[in-house]
Amino acid sequence: MKKLFLVDAYALIFKYYYAFMGRPMRNRAGMNTSVVFGFTKFLRDIQKREHPDLLGVAFDPKGGSFRREIFPEYKANRAETPEDYFATFDFSPFFKK
């Protein structure tokens, strides 16, 4: 039987952003690279440990999801996303696809 792994990209992105918040990893230009490091490490660990036949990474669509239509207060109590969080998407070609 084939093994399929589906990864919730934004769950991992937020996980690694906040996991390294106290001591973020930065490149020579000073850009926070914690998310790229954590995300890549997670995918490599899955490949080495589980040897999946298929590995999919799912991103939420632009403009939000159906959850706001069903429940307008969805994520209403969350703080604004920090600016350097978005820099990750400009830095890594993987996140641009």
In short:
With 97 residues, the protein is mainly alpha-helical. The chain has helices at 9-19, 34-50, 67-70, 83-91; strands at 4-8, 54-58.
Question: Which features does this protein show?
Answer:
mainly alpha, single chain, 10% strand
What can you see in these coordinates?
The protein is 42% helix and 10% strand. It is mostly helical and 97 residues long. It has a two-stranded parallel ribbon with strand order 1-2. The radius of gyration is 15 Å and the shape is flat.
Mean pLDDT: 84
Q: Would you count the extended β strands for me? A: 2
Helix content: 40-55%
Radius of gyration of CA atoms, rounded to a whole number: 15 Å
- Strand order, sheet with most strands: 1-2
Which spans of ≥5 residues are poorly predicted at pLDDT below 50?
none
- Gross morphology: flat
Structural class: mainly alpha
Note the main sheet. 2 strands, parallel
Instruction: Please report the distance between the alpha carbons of the first and last residues.
Output: 30 Å
**Strand portion:** 5-15%
Order of helices and strands: EHHEHH
Helix count equals 4
